[in-house]
Amino acid sequence: MTDMKTPRPSSIEFSRREGIAYLMRDGDLAVPAGRYGSTTRECAPIAWRVAYLVARETGATIDEQLLDHAMDLVVNSHEDVAYILNT
Hints:
- The protein is an all-alpha fold.
- It is 53% helix and 0% strand.
- The protein has helices at 16-23, 40-58, 64-75, 79-85.
- The model is unreliable at 6-11 (pLDDT under 50).
């Protein structure tokens, strides 16, 4: 039996709305002691912005890998998030 929810290929660029929806795919989860938000709903727009800025500066595509990495930085309160957002 095949899975009806086939993931998008990682080479497809995500719009802001699609990117935030992708980051929220597991629901609105708690982010204990988060520096940038206390839930994934609060962190997703910040992670999107980080991914957007990184893609803009490096020429990368906004894909699942970049979004996942940005969300990882945000929910783990990494200092690079503040640096990226303030430069």
